Amino acid sequence: xxxxxxxxxxxxxxxxxxxxxxxxxxxxxxxxxxxxxxxxxxxxxxxxxxxxxxxxxxxxxxxxxxxxxxxxxxxxxxxxxxxxxxxxxxxxxxxxxxxxxxxxxxxxxxxxxxxxxxxxxxxxxxxxxxxxxxxxxxxxxxxxxxxxx
Length: 149
Fold this sequence. Notes:
The chain has 149 residues and is an alpha/beta fold. 23% of the residues lie in helices and 19% in strands.
C-alpha cells in the first residue's frame, strides 16, 4: 500500500525544521517495497507560523521570535503550534501517513493523531529518516516483529 510522508526541511537534505516554523513541506511517496521518491513541495500559507497571538494572550504576547512562533520566555511551552497556523499546516498534509520534523509540539501531535498522521521528531538526513520510517511502516503493515529475522 503506497503512502506519503511530509518532511520539514530547509534544504531538502536534512530534517531541520520545527513543524510550526516550516515554511513548506517536501512530500515523498513510499511504494509497497519501501522505496521512496520526491513528489512535490507544499508551501504553508504566509503568515501562519504555527502559533498565533491567541496562544500567548496574557503571557507577555509577542510570539514572533522562535521557529514555532512563540517567543523565548513569554509563552508557555505547551502553546507552541497550538494556534490556527498549526491547524492549517495539518490540513496541508492531511493526505500523508506521517510527518517528519525536527520538533513537534504536543498540541500539534494531538491534531495529527486525530487525522491518523504519525509524527516523528528527529534531526538527521532526510534519506535516513525516510528509510527508517518506511522500514517501520513495512514491518507494522506486514505484522513483522522487530528484532526478528
